[in-house]
Amino acid sequence: xxxxxxxxxxxxxxxxxxxxxxxxxxxxxxxxxxxxxxxxxxxxxxxxxxxxxxxxxxxxxxxxxxxxxxxxxxxxxxxxxxxxxxxxxxxxxxxxxxxxxxxxxxxxxxxxxxxxxxxxxxxxxxxxxxxxxxxxxxxxxxxxxxxxxxxxxxxxxxxxxxxxxxxxxxxxxxxxxxxxxxxxxxxxxxxxxxxxxxxxxxxxxxxxxxxxxxxxxxxxxxxxxxxxxxxxxxxxxxxxxxxxxxxxxxxx
Length: 252
Hints:
Elements: E1 2-8, E2 11-19, E3 24-28, H1 42-45, E4 50-54, H2 69-82, E5 89-93, H3 95-103, E6 112-115, H4 133-152, H5 162-169, H6 173-178, E7 184-189, H7 200-216, E8 223-228, H8 234-237, H9 239-251
Parallel strand pairs: 3-4, 3-5, 5-6, 6-7, 7-8
Antiparallel strand pairs: 1-2, 2-4
């Protein structure tokens, strides 16, 4: 394993190269996390792939800079170039999955994987079909207050860009999936995180809307949708199954 820093413009990006044989795969973590979140999966992939991890800007050992999708993609490009990865596969969880999906908007990527980086909660009313509007607004107000409290507690470099990140997460990531020009695997969770159990009606309606929207991706020739019996924390809960999904998708 080699640890290094790659310069992406003025932002230093922390990178870890685990080596391994085969097609390089670059792994991206979720919001508020770091490359360490992938540790349970790495041993499952190094037998078939060269595994590289990076901390997204504002996270882990990386420096901070304004958050935007073009900036995040430029960071990925800087790592790919610095490590001479050629045309790697890119897999991400949550926020990292959103970045991987946008990487797939360019042709030539052998495969991108989005692990449950599909959309945030605080989105348009149509994302909660079948839920009474008054109850929906009441629960969304309560959920916003919880997220605001969490955001206010963020410290360190991430605090500088947390508002930009929250706005980015609330964009339409299903549309970004449809815009992929390279093969894209979308993996959706089917179980709740503990925090989601505090909002049962809202979560149930959210899943109905998500199932409806994921069905539209079946029309896109290069997008494959899978569901996993796990919560959003699938990388931690089911690392072997997540690695198998990635391996089989890239092998195909």
